[in-house]
């Protein structure tokens, strides 16, 4: 089973959006985790409201600090901001996304929908069989 780790600074906005959307899309086929390099005390109420609009409840989530151990659990790490201080990992993708910290729900909605498209593509790529080059 594939494990995907979404990382942002505070684990209160972008990574919670991505993790919530990925968990909803993947069902039980993929393990989804999220963390932040400098986590807040709580997930953004605006982000929670935006996810609730599409039927996703992340109200029980508590932001957590990214550690080398958490990163090691993941098959792929998705950094939701360039330049994050990440533990060494063989497979990191960066999605340069704006920080929605001061946004209202109307502002977060387009970001949520954009992240949903990125998540759908990521999950599709994760489900594709790995192709091995053959000599010929």
UniProtKB/TrEMBL annotation:
Highest taxon of source: Bacteria
Keyword Metal-binding carried by entry: no
Keyword Nucleus: no
Residues of the Phosphotyrosine protein phosphatase I domain: 2-125
Keywords: Arsenical resistance
Protein name: Protein-tyrosine-phosphatase
Organism of this sequence: Cellulomonas humilata
């Amino acid at each position: 089973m594939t494990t995907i780790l979404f990382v942002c600074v505070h684990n209160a906005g972008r990574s919670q959006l991505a993790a919530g959307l990925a968990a909803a899309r993947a069902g039980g086929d993929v393990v989804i985790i999220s963390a932040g390099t400098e986590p807040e005390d709580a997930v953004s109420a605006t982000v929670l409201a935006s996810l609730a609009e599409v039927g996703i409840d992340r109200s029980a989530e508590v932001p957590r600090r990214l550690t080398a151990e958490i990163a090691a659990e993941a098959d792929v790490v998705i950094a939701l901001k360039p330049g994050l201080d990440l533990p060494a990992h063989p497979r990191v993708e960066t999605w340069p996304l704006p920080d929605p910290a001061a946004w209202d729900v109307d502002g977060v909605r387009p970001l949520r929908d954009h992240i949903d498209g990125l998540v759908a593509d990521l999950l599709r790529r994760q489900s594709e069989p790995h192709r091995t080059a053959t000599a010929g």
